[in-house]
Amino acid sequence: MKIRLLTGLTLVLLTATRCSDYLEHLPDQRAELNTPEKVAELLASAYPRANYITFLEALSDNAEDKALTTSELINSAPWQFNDVPSRNEDTPDFYWQAAYAAIAASNQALETINSASDQTQYRASKGEALVTRAYAHFMLVTLFSRVYNPVTAATDPGIPYVTEPEKVVTQKYERKTVAYVYEQIEKDLEEGIPLLDNESYKEGAGRYHFTTTAAHGFATRFYLFKMDYTKVVEHANLAFPSGNILPSLRPINSEAYRAMEPLVKLAEYTKADKPSNLLLVEAPSLWARSLRGYRYGFNFNLLSKVVWNQNVTSGLWGYMFYGNEASLFTPKFREHFVKMDPNAEIGTPYNMIPLLTAEEVLFNRAEANARLGNYDATLKDLNDFASTRIIVNDTDEPYYDPARHTVTRARVLRFYNTTDIEAALIATVLDFKRVEFLFEGQRWFDIIRHRLQVVHVPYSRDNILTLGPNDPRRVLQIPQEAQSSGIELNPR
Fold first, then answer.
1. First to last CA, the chain
2. 169 pLDDT band (50/70/90 cuts)?
3. Where are the alpha helices (DSSP H) in 26-91?
4. Helices within 287-374 (DSSP H only)
């Protein structure tokens, strides 16, 4: 990994050795950014090359104390609901830096496009630049500000929404408000999505860029946070014009998938040719090699409670887990280690991170339809998902049986012991999502959206840690270095 120090908000620009040379010499060679091809190449760097999974899994209720003799700060600090005093990969500070570096690339592309004499040649790149700028800002406001609340968004501090390349050594920025940030995200999305062209990307590169499917998929997440449920459904159906997401779901319970060796599954999960992966990014990260060995993580107690426990279908989850109490995992991530040179023993570990998946779009639509009173539509999505995940048992009937497993209104009401069908369906969505996105960090997004309490119990059972719905530590701390740009820190 090559690191170039920038100023102000854009603290570091992370570029892999495969990136274009002009990226490694910004701003000295900006004059060379003068063709549609070069702008398109620049936009490969407009996606945050950082992994949020490590600290979000540790923050969530997907992590328990495994009582290992050693612990890593990037895992232990978030589990203890403390700020992470590190700028290394897999930390909040690293993600902040990478996100603003991505935004800088988007803004540089847009400046070039807007000054071009013939902007029609840049139409698709302008769309990608706007959507990537919206995505990076959305992730920042989601992690470093209070979750969107229509009652308080107009006063809750946001994050700087940067729309121009930096021109001075220390640029000053305002956080403004969460409402303002959301307005800017929506503006960029609405302008950018119609400009996208899937054919503009090089063959085989589409899953690393915002295609129309990925962009509409991101829009479902944004509008779910914004509580605009009609638009969630609208964008889900635009992502999959037939409305049928089922063919794009991973066949987790299929005989072929279950028969794969763990190492094969590690490679399969984040492959670009899998229809479930809508947007992927390669990020420097130790997650793949360390997730099994972290002291605070997934263990047999959670496996029993979250996965093996009874669920609304009455069947078993078809996911397969490996390891022991100290190293439990389900295969999702494989490390790609890049040596500094062919003879070196040191280098940078990379992980392929699924930023958007077909499964998430399905869940977003299911929850939105439940909010809108479209209960049959929610049940359809839940049953489509269950058909690719549920089995009768692990021995003589390892398959889905609709006669036994179909989710119905009566079943969800009975399972969750309620007469509120909307609440029961949303509980089903959240339970399904929790299992599906284990080891992917997505659980945290539901925790903050639904104001769920998180309780972390040390192995000694002393000093039990509770993160309540209004605890300021639910908002990640802004990096200390950002203060030089006039950005106030979050309360603690």
1. 33
2. low
3. 36-42, 53-59, 73-79
4. 287-290, 300-302, 358-372
Place of tokens 């996965």: 307
Percentage of the chain modeled with pLDDT above 70: 93
Q: Residue for token digits 């790609």? A: 336
Q: What's 319's DSSP letter?
A: -
Tell me if residue 300 falls in helix, strand or coil. Answer: helix
Give the position of tokens 């500094």.
Answer: 340
Crossing angle for the helix pair 123-144 and 178-192, to the nearest 10 degrees = 160
Residue 1 has pLDDT above 70, yes or no: no
- Whether omega before 398 lies within 30 degrees of 0, making that bond cis, reads no
- Which residues partner with 400 through β-bridges? none
Q: How far is CA 80 from CA 56, 64, 112, 263, in A?
A: 12, 11, 45, 32
Convert the pLDDT of each residue in 87-110 to its tens digit.
999 999 999 999 999 999 999 999
CB 349, CB 288: distance < 8 Å: yes
Least Cα distance to 5 among 82, 64, 81, 87 occurs for 87
Evaluate whether 139 touches 159 at the Cβ level (below 8 Å): no
pTM of the complete model beyond 0.85 = yes
| Among 97, 56, 99, 96, CA closest to 79 | 56
What angle do the packed helices 123-144 and 212-226 form, to 10 degrees?
Answer: 30
In the chain the domains, ranked by start, together with CATH numbers, are 28-200+453-491 (1.25.40.390), 242-282+300-441 (no CATH)
DSSP characters for 61-111? TT-EE---S---HHHHHHHTT------STTSHHHHHHHHHHHHHHHHHHHH
Closest Cα partner for 465 from 30, 52, 63? 63
Three-state SS for 490?
A: coil
Pairwise CA distance, residues 287 & 481, whole Å: 25
404's tokens? 């036994």
Residues constituting the chain? 492
**Burial letters for 303-318: b for 16+ Cβ neighbours within 10 Å, e otherwise?**
beebbeeebbbebbbb
Amino acid at 372: L
- How far apart, in whole angstroms, are the C-alpha atoms of residue 83 and residue 305? 28
Question: How far, in Å, are 145, 262, 264 from residue 329 at the CA level?
Answer: 31, 10, 14
- Tell me the pLDDT tens digit for each residue of 330-344: 999 999 999 888 888
